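Protein: CRISPR-associated HD domain protein
Species: Thermoanaerobacter wiegelii Rt8.B1
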Amino acid sequence: MKYYSHYDEEMKYEKLLYEHLIEVKNLSINQIPEEYKKAYEIIALCHDFGKYTSYFQEYLKTKKKTSLSNHSFISAVFGGYVAIQYYGEENILPLIVYNTILHHHGNLESFSVNLPSKFKDVSRKDFPLNVSEKIDISYKQLKDMRQNLSFIIPDFERLGLAKEFKQFVEEENVIKDTLAILKKLEALSIRRLKSDENYFIHQMLYSALISADKISASNTYLPEELYVDYKTLNKIRENQFEISEKDIDKIRTEIFKVVIENLEKNYNKSKIFSITAPTGTGKTVTGFFAALKLKELLGGNRKIIYSLPFTSIIEQNYGVLFELLEKLDKFKGNSSRYIIKHHNLAMIEYESEYRDYKKTEAELLIENWQSGIIITTFVQLLETLVGARNRMLKKFNALKGSIIILDEIQAINIKYFQLVDYILNKASEYLDLRIIIMTATKPMILNDAVELLDNNEKYFSIFKRTRLMPQMEKLTIESFIEKFKENLEDKSYLIVCNTIMQSLEIYKRLVELGLNREIFYLSTNILPLHRRERINKIKEKLEKEEKIILVSTQVVEAGVDFDFDVVIRDLGPIDSIIQSAGRCNRNGKKEIGDVYVYKMIDEEENLFGKYVYGNTLMNISENILKRYDTIMEEKYFQLINEYFSMVMQNKSSQVSREFIKSIENLDFSEGEYAIDSFSLIENNPGYFEAFFIYDDVAEDIFKKYLKLSNIKDFNARREAYLEIQKNIKDYILSLPKKYINNFQLDKGIPYLPKEGIKDIYDFKTGFKRDIDDKYMIF
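Structure follows.
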């Protein structure tokens, strides 16, 4: 009798179980530090132990699942048993081995969830009900194995675990006894073994298993990652960016040289570096080349992971770097081996000259960060470092030895600053990371970083592109419109609002004025497809120096390369105000650009910013700004430092401290601040996603989406979904649940048919909301 790990007669695919176990070991063993290699070997060779039953083999043939065909629990107990034989009963590694195997097909849970309540005189009542049921099933599975020993033992001789296997299947109370010992280890770990190092050991071993398991199971060919060297790409950069006499380009070149020179002097003095420079001074290119230079100085092939707050900026920065890389000789046909982008809206494709990857294979390679350069979001990075989700943790080990660029770190919610500071410092220690933090508004985080632009105040003082002019009297929307009309000049204007309702009302009032100007609207209230088209159209108009007006929300604050003559920003946090100022006179073509800060209120005299940022940040910003009539750009650096200093004094770090405690306690799922509850983007249960059948393309996509349910095979269904995933998301909006009755709900996703579009969606302003809707969608 042959034992298979995977078998599909229809797809003509089969894999022998012992071959799969050895493959999983070999795929990841080199990622593991020497002192934990044995633990990983046990994990890899034991993780599918439960597949050595006739129940599971029958399931492979019939696809009919039963409780007896489940394999994770008995596999985890066997792995824990083998680890106890090797490490003894005073080491946390058997517990980590058990937990890692137990959850290799799902998300992580805390140890105690699947252990008895005590470790002495353990009886059935000491186990959670679901665990008692699993124990009963396990003993039946062991009985089945005993009946087929002659077929199974040769496999375990190949695996080098024949002795442990025989002992395990022959011991009378082996399941209960092993779990009791593991409970003892858990009690010991709480008292004596607790440390942040255990968290990193756990996540490394878990990541190694789940990534290798999925690659082996799918038979995905792993392409070799390709790395570029500093010297080669720098020559391309120098040729691409011709020497310019423009002042701004001279400053960009000077900053580039200072950063690289300082890196050469200080690369071995720290693992964390910073580049603090004004907006528009070429930080994208400078930061990337600093990472390349650091890779060269440290030696070896290290991934460069470029992390940003928003998907819109990813597309822009990916485009800049792709344009440089495509000049390389081997780049064509191998682009994904050099560089990939990973975020929820990205196209799923992986380009390699050696193989045409299916969408499901490409998805796996992208989610494993199988490339020399990864452009991704803070969500992907930080929810991997602080996470319990299987899908996120596949790439945890891909971080090892990498160089991480954190661009615009101030976009992270302030309540997580202490947590982010903690996890990045610890990751640099345990995963041998190097970190480059880049921003024009450096927050109070990673304070020990070596500043690579050490004379940065000089560059902040050079720039005189804009000036802030706070207007701190309260203004209703009506009063603001009157003021705007009175002061309107022959210039381009950007108006940045805090809430969608506010932005829609201002846009409507401006259109009603009949200003003989082209007026645009931009926010997350319009479909992603229309948002992209509009950004490109606005850029074209601005390049032609047309005097347009744009009413927007915060979607323009980072990464959108607009250059307006005048920016008007409703009162918000000072870092957001300065980001908005970066869309004014960005390239220094005008003498000076004016940035007005207004204090707008609704009918109840509440600040619009309060609905988004709360009272504390709004009060701090107002108290600072009301001291000034005008603030020149050279003072922004001082202004932002004052703001963050006051924020850190007023903002509680309780949330961060609780998450740090959960990391140290390996609490994945039980407490209020358990690791699995961490989310960089606040989950809003009051929202739903709706599909808009806006045009013929959307109609065709929706028909394809509905046909997915007819595809029985999971992999084939996933492949078909990935073909249309990007197009689906182009036509989806996230909306408050109070609007759900406007949509049809009979197809698995709320949707709006084409004939209903005119009633609910406007091409210029997007979804038609109630006038009293104060919600803000990020």
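Remarks: DSSP finds 30 helices and 23 strands in the chain.
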